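Subject: Mitochondrial potassium channel ATP-binding subunit structure
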Amino acid sequence: MTVSQGLKAATQAVGCIISLFAVSPKLTMIMIGVIPVVVVIGTGLGSILRSMSRDAQEEISKSTAVADEALGNIRTVRAFAMERKELELYGGQVDKSRAKNIRLGLGIGAFQAGANLFLNGIVLGSLFAGGYLISTKEMRAGDLISFLVATQMVERSLAQMSLLLGHVVRGHTAGARVFEFIDYKPKIPVSGGKKIPFHSLMGEITFSHVSFSYPGRKQQTVLEDFNLHIPGGKVVALVGLSGGGKSTVAFLLERFYDVSGGSITIDGHDLRQLDPAWLRGQAIGFITQEPVLFATTVMENIRYGRPEATDAEVMEAARLANADRFIQSFPKGYATVLGERGVTVSGGQKQRIAIARALIKNPSILILDEATSALDVESERLVQDALEKVIKGRTTLVIAHRLSTIRNADIIAVVSKGRIMEMGSHTELNAQRGLYWELMMKQELEDDLNSK
């Protein structure tokens, strides 16, 4: 609408100015002589208005974020009786947004009022100058009336354009952040690069002198001179205190980030040369502590791992993940629609559906990022049984919180302060009486206290 009305107003203004030249070139030159000054002033005011509009838009975004966070975590808000506090936070942010928008509205109103005063001043000035030209016989009264009619048409067109400018300022600011994301070039491409043929993929992974800092915390080194070799088909577990960099290793292997220094290779191929879409879609299955399910059927949630999979393949993946029995117990079986983010199933059921979703890709490499740490004992046992079945013959990286779940791992690596401090089997590390042994003692003590 703004574009069509703007074109109409601009065409009328240009056409009428041509008519004004035809009636009286001298009077037209007098009238439009002041326009450049006004254009310069208007450009400066327009820049100020755009800045004010950006500030107002940011405040609206902040207030929306506060509301979204409170509603998205409503159970936590209720659990701590923080409803009033959240209302105060939201109200305060809305008040800031209102104040910025009032300033913007006053600014646009002042601009439009000034534009109208100027345009009406042109009409009055034309009338005054035309009266003088009539008195000197340089212009006829009829021509002055024609000139005034055309001048008023120009005035109305320009007034319409000043109103449209307000819409343009608001629309441009609102769309600026959208276009910012559209134009953003990701550092890690979504696709493109080499693919290792499935029949020759052994899944041998090597972290060589890797150093890494997250983009938002470049001054904090998470991994430093990190070295780890994961033989193909073996189970390697990473253990250690929180904040040591265990999950970061998984994120780097998925290539959510690129290393700051060193390299990561799969079967001798640098990770940065491989196709990220192939890597995540076919080579690696990633199971996290809090998997996200979608508000669709169980069948579609599992098939999300491989959209072309048949119903039979989906059910086979569910059986491998110890999920088929409870899925069949649902009223509609695999056609049962899960709630948003999978809220209608328990933690153990959600985890087993997520395992099935990862397995349907038949990945050569599995990453288990504390996949059982948030579950109760019975759910953990069922999920652990499912995992023990599916890791056979696959290269598996296990990030563990409960050390009891990784005793049978081929290699256990103790991570501390971004480095591998100890490495070996459960028996070997226990015999060393080092960090791993200390972690085992602490966890056994915690388990004894919890059982009492």
